[in-house]
Amino acid sequence: MKQVFPFIALAFFATVPLWLQDQYYLHTLVVAGIFMLAAMSLNLLLGYTGQLSLGHVAFFGIGAYVSALTSLGFSLSIFGFQITHEPWPAFVGLILGALAAGLCGYLIGKLAFRVRGAYFVIVTISFAEVVRLVSLNWVELTNGPLALPGIPPLTLGFEWTGYVTLWGKAQNYYLVLVLIALAYLLIKRLVQSPYGRAMIALRENETLAVSVGISVTKYLVLAAIFSGALAGLAGGLYAHYIQIIDPMIFMFLNTVTMVIMVITGGKGTLAGPLVGGLIFGLAPVFLRNYVGPEVQWILYGVLMILVVFVLPEGIVPAIERWFNRAAKPKRKNGSAGGKMEQSGSSLAMASSGKVNS
């Protein structure tokens, strides 16, 4: 059942645009799905290596700006040299945005993983703030606080098949759903590989992992590259879907949203960011129909606190534990009696000196 459930969930969500007629809720699902991708990328660091990044929104924003500028084109002067870039297809910008964010993940990983704990958190926050200030003040390139409008939507296809421009919400929904499924499979393959087991070993006991020959920097930087690239991909999707971005994309609230999705869903689990993202991505929208904006955030915070206190390991580990208890067969009296007899014989052997303590 555990192996089949992801396919059942995927099949269910594939039918959503067929029966969900309200375009606002479909829009909400698209945005929530994009942030689920970003939360999955953060889970690689927080869940599988144990490193908390509070500047993860920097990779998200870098992917958004690189993808937007690649598809819009730009002209700027650097040290007297005029650089002009003509617009490229949007899907090329999406790829370049992911690569740029992955490269930044490599650079930050090389520098930041020399420190641990609170120092690593400070480095990541500082990096995000520097990137935000660059986007705010480099007006010639990013248009600063005036934002980058008119970002073209994604266009998929080839010359011999024809092109499809993703204007509609249902089209973007299916694109996000496919990318979430691919990211899920990629992360699962990575986690189950020797590289993933090395990351988990570093999370559980770094000293012991180092003593058996696992390179701390190598595997943590690898996680940072994958995490940054996936967050950049999510940022590019966001830019081409919303079609306008500004420095507010680097808000600390976006990082907090990703962290909440990972922790409440279950860090270190494949489905955790998806479950947490679905709940906390849709909760404000449903609360909006019943209470005002101030009460919404209060209830949002209360819901998060309840989940953390009642299910400290997260929602997904708790559900897995409940399923395991339900599937576990009850012990029969005979088997219990056999175990008592075996325990009695072991005690007898121990008392006679035949079993070493």
Architecture overview:
- The chain is mostly helical.
- The protein has helices at 5-14, 16-19, 23-46, 57-72, 90-112, 118-137, 139-142, 169-191, 194-204, 206-211, 216-242, 252-265, 272-287, 293-310, 315-327, 333-351; strands spanning 74-78, 81-85, 148-149, 155-158, 162-165, 244-245.
- The strands form three sheets. It has a two-stranded antiparallel sheet. Strands 3-6 form a two-stranded antiparallel sheet.
- Strand 1 and strand 2 form a beta hairpin.
- Helix 4 (57-72) packs across helix 11 and helix 13 runs antiparallel to helix 14 (293-310).
SSE pattern: HHHHEEHHHEEEHHHHEHHHHH
In round numbers, the mean pLDDT is: 83
Tell me the β content: 5-15%
- The count of strands amounts to 6
Number of helices: 16
Tell the overall outline: globular
Distance between the termini: 42 Å
Major sheet details: 2 strands, antiparallel
In terms of quaternary structure, what is this?
single chain
Computed CA radius of gyration, to the nearest angstrom: 24 Å
Question: Low-confidence stretches at least 5 residues in length (pLDDT < 50)?
Answer: 331-357
**Class based on secondary structure composition and strand pairing:** mainly alpha
Enumerate the strands of the largest sheet in spatial order, edge to edge or round the barrel: 1-2
Portion in helices:
55-70%
